[in-house]
Every structure is written in structure tokens, then in C-alpha cells.
Amino acid sequence: MSPLSTDTIQALSHVHAKPDNIRFQYGTAGFRTLGNILDSVLFRTGILAGLRSKKLDGQTIGVMVTASHNPEADNGVKLVDPYGEMLEASWEIYATKLANAPDLISALEDVIRDADIDLSKPSHVVYARDTRPSGPALVAALEDGLKVLNVDARDAGVTTTPILHYLVRAINTKGTKNSYGEDSEQGYFEKMTNAFKKLVAGRPPRDSLLIDCANGVGAKAAVELSEYLGDSLPITLENTDTTTPGVLNNMCGADFVKTTQKLPPSLANKLKPGQRGCSLDGDADRLMYFYLDERGQFRMLDGDKIATLVGSFIGELVKSAGLEDKIKVGSVQTAYANGASTKYLSERLPVRCVSTGVKHLHHAAENFDVGVYFEANGHGTVLFSPATTDRLREYQPSTPAQQTALEHLINLTLLINQAVGDALSDMLLVEVVLAHKNYTGIEWDSLYSDLPNRLVKVVVADRNAFQTEDAERRLVRPEGLQARIEELAHRYEGGRSFVRPSGTEDVVRVYAEAVIRTQADELAFRVAGLVYDTAGGDPARRPKEFL
Ligand code: G16
């Protein structure tokens, strides 16, 4: 085992000093907080990424510098494991330990001993960042961390989170039976758009899709995508300003649409009634669809609507291919899933509910032959198990109709980014289903009616005081609060509400749904008020609706 170069670590830790009195936590999507306090975290994460790669015999680990849907002043960093999945949970503890260690060298020695890491092994890392202004400085700190272990590092530049995940998987599977594609952006776009073109071949031309790029890195990727798509899908890009300070995710993007249930004001005169529109988030891993109905009313098609559309379509293809006895399609949701979507899906597929966070959904989806997972916020994908992929490759259909369905399924395995939820890949997937069904947004929307729902954020003194159980559907702490929430929810027809601490923002989230719109809103704000009063919220940030 080669020793740690303690002199280098000491010198660089001095340059990237840890701020006092701040405790960092590797949460739902890595470290995420104000960008201007993250320098030491990035430096330390660089070292951790090198250690993780050494632990895995030099396989390439990904590092993404982003705060996704959060405000522009926030930033963050997360590690990506070799197949493009989220960092293994046991290493999240090491990440948090290193980020907070007063004595970095002794913490590193602990981790190396505990995880049994051979420092003489090689290490490879690929990293990227989104368009946030704090990105370049944070990447420089990360690079200093990578130098500590002489990591062989590749800078993937400014790109989306899903492209970084794709690159990690492509690099690690290169030359193997499970090769995921060329390890370049070009490889990513070609793989996806070639499959898309085959899937929509012979279908009537579609009218233009309007894409709200959240003024983030998705704008850059969407421009490239449109070149690869050619005329197979006409798209119009909006909110593509990645240089004006303050505009990222501001009054636009997938999180704005989901939480306000409104059209971004910047699209007001651009989206025509009946036209399909969609919003990406700041790093292009979430997708929300929408349209204006004939009365000009905004209608949202969220992650639940995507899951039901896609899950049913894949289930039908499996059946048409004659594979329904051999391939089981299942779906994974979280407590945020609209009750109506769960009902619709459960009548067609097995459905599981897990805690918020892609890593939970991803792992649960791996238990199905084909696992369709989407969070209501628009984050999700479809996983085909390795055995299913082999089965599709080897299957001999007995009729031309089975052959066609089989080809569609195989092309879907290429279109879908199975490494992680990917707004652009998901968008093409939705477009494929709409083209096959000859649906507009209106027909898609009419598959089932959402129960009116409302999501509210409450700023409290300590969100860690909130603890949950049963896939976050029930609060265990603060004691007594759950019973009061239930008591309130029972007063409304179809009332359901739950409360959980966010893993990406310093807030507690309150969700409520009910049969009638005004009642869903009232329930949400009454529960939010309860949370506020129990936990001592910040008066300056008390949600206006329950003042
Ligand atoms: C991240 C996670 C998602 C999660 C979201 C919100 O998304 O990857 O799985 O749903 O945060 O989490 P929370 O409610 O705990 O704040 P993103 O798009 O911000 O990376």
C-alpha cells in the first residue's frame, strides 16, 4: 500500500480550509448548500472519489458539480458509481465524515482502514459541472483533491447530470458484452436519437414541442440534441440564457412548474393552446410536461402522468411481443405520487412505494424485469434487467406483429438512459408513446384525473427534528404531530397529507391532496401551519397562504 502524501494534503487543506461551525451532510443528492461555502467539501470529495475508484479496482467514478433545481446561489456535488448509479449508501457516511473532519488526515486514515482500500491501486474519475457561476472555482477545488491521490481524471466540462452518468457507465462497460455506448457526448446523442428515429419511423409528423430549458445546462444539451434529431422532432427552445446572473431556475424550469402548477411567465405568449410544452430543471434530470386547454387553462403532466403513460405502453408492447409470461413490468413511486396515478397504475402493474430519492427508486426498480420509476417531480427512468435485455436479444417471435413489438422494445432499451433519470431521454420517450398512440397532451391527460394536490415548503429551526417511517408516509418525530395531521386529513374528502424533511434544501416539505382543489390547498396550508407552530419556523419565511 502506498502511503498518503500527508505534506500535500496538509498544504492543500490549508488552501481549502473547512469553514467553522458548519456541518455538511451528504443527503438525497450529495452535498448541497450555498455555493460559496463548499470549497473544502469539493476538495475533500475529490480525494474521496479517488479512494472510491481505488476501492473498485480503478473503475471510473463520476463527480457531478450541480445543485440541480435549487436556486442559482446554491451548488453541490455528488459521486456516481461505476454503472452510472448513485454512490453506495455506506460511502455516504464516509463522504459526510471527511467533509466535517477537523483533522482530515486522520479521517482519511480511518476511511482507508475501515473500507480496506489499497492505495497502490489505480484511480480514475470523470467530472462535470452545470452552468452555475460558482462552478469553475468549485471544480478547481475538486481538481486539487484529485491531485492528492494522483487520480487519472477526465474533465467532461459543462454538461447535464444524466450525460455525466451516461459517460461513467459507457467508460466502465467499454469493450464488454454490456457496452453502453461511445463514451462521448456525441455517442450519447447518437445512441438516443438513432433509437428515437427508428421508433417514430412511419408515424405522422408531430407539431413543434416547446422546451423550457430553465436557463440551465439543459439549454446547451437541447441545442445539440436538436441537431441530431433533425426533422424527426421539431423543437423550440425557450429559457436558454445561461449567462445572465440570477435567471437559472428562476420562475421557470421543472421545479417551478411542479410546485406552482403554473406556466412559467416567460412562456405566456409562446405556448399555443393544445401545443405540447415541457420544462427541464437546472441540470436536466427532471421533466414536466404541460399544455393549455381550449380555455387557455394550464394543465400539468408530471412524473406520475409520465409513469402511467410509459408503464402502460411498455406493458402493452411486452404483451404484443408475446412475452407477458416471461417479462414482468413493475412500477415504483414515492409518497408524492398522486393517489389517482397509483390507482391507475395498480390496476395494470405491480406498484411499490419507497422513500424520496432516485437511489431508493432505482434500487426498487431493479427488482422488476422492467422497472418503471418516476417521482412526481419528474425525475425517473425505466430499467431493463440484464436478463431481460438478453431475453429480448435472443427471443424468436412467431408473428410479424410480435417482431415489430420486439424491435420497439429493443429500441426503447437504447433510447432510455438507464443509468439515471434524464429529462431529454425521457422527453423523447414520451414523444415516442404519444406518436404511437397518436395522442395530444389532452388525450394523454384524460387517461386519469389527478386528485388536486399542493406541495408547500416550511422553513423551520431544525429540519432534522422531523423523522419519518413507512416510506416517509408517517412522521415519528416530533411526537404527536402525525396524529394531528391525520386528524386534519380526515376532515377532507379523499384527504391525504404527509410531512418530511427535504434532503436537498433546508426546509420541511408538506404534501396534501383531496378530492376538491380548495380543500387540497386548505389541507396543505393547515398542515404547514401545524408544522410551523410545532417546530418554530422562521417568521420571515412563513408561507403567505397561512399567515
Ligand atoms: C433530488 C433527488 C430526487 C428528489 C429531489 C428532491 O433531485 O435526486 O430524487 O426527489 O432531490 O428531494 P428532497 O425533497 O429530499 O429535497 P434533484 O433534481 O434536485 O437532483
Automatic annotation (TrEMBL):
What are the Alpha-D-phosphohexomutase C-terminal domain coordinates in residue numbering?
455-528
Q: Which cofactor does it need?
A: Mg(2+)
Catalytic reactions on record: N-acetyl-alpha-D-glucosamine 1-phosphate = N-acetyl-D-glucosamine 6-phosphate
Q: Which CDD domains match?
A: PGM3
Cleavable signal peptide: none
Metabolic or biological pathway, per its Swiss-Prot or TrEMBL entry: Nucleotide-sugar biosynthesis; UDP-N-acetyl-alpha-D-glucosamine biosynthesis; N-acetyl-alpha-D-glucosamine 1-phosphate from alpha-D-glucosamine 6-phosphate (route I): step 2/2
| Residues binding Mg(2+), per UniProt | 68, 281, 283, 285
GO-annotated molecular function: magnesium ion binding; phosphoacetylglucosamine mutase activity
The free-text cofactor remark is: Binds 1 Mg(2+) ion per subunit.
Q: What is its EC number?
A: 5.4.2.3
Cell wall biogenesis/degradation listed as a keyword: yes
Name the Gene Ontology biological process terms.
Answer: carbohydrate metabolic process; cell wall organization; UDP-N-acetylglucosamine biosynthetic process
**Binding-site list for substrate:** 375-377, 500-504, 509
Identify which residues the record assigns to the active site.
Answer: 68 (phosphoserine intermediate)
Keyword Oxidoreductase appears in the UniProt entry: no
Residue span(s) of domain Alpha-D-phosphohexomutase alpha/beta/alpha: 61-90, 111-175
Which InterPro entries would you find in this protein's record? A-D-PHexomutase_a/b/a-I, A-D-PHexomutase_a/b/a-I/II/III, A-D-PHexomutase_C, A-D-PHexomutase_C_sf, A-D-PHexomutase_CS, AMG1_II, AMG1_III, PAGM
Tell me the ranges covered by the Phosphoacetylglucosamine mutase AMG1 domain, including all copies: 185-287, 302-439
Keywords, comma-separated and alphabetical:
Carbohydrate metabolism, Cell wall biogenesis/degradation, Isomerase, Magnesium, Metal-binding, Phosphoprotein
Functionally, this protein is described as follows: Catalyzes the conversion of GlcNAc-6-P into GlcNAc-1-P during the synthesis of uridine diphosphate/UDP-GlcNAc, which is a biosynthetic precursor of chitin and also supplies the amino sugars for N-linked oligosaccharides of glycoproteins.
The record's comment on protein family reads: Belongs to the phosphohexose mutase family.
What is the designated name of this protein?
A: Phosphoacetylglucosamine mutase
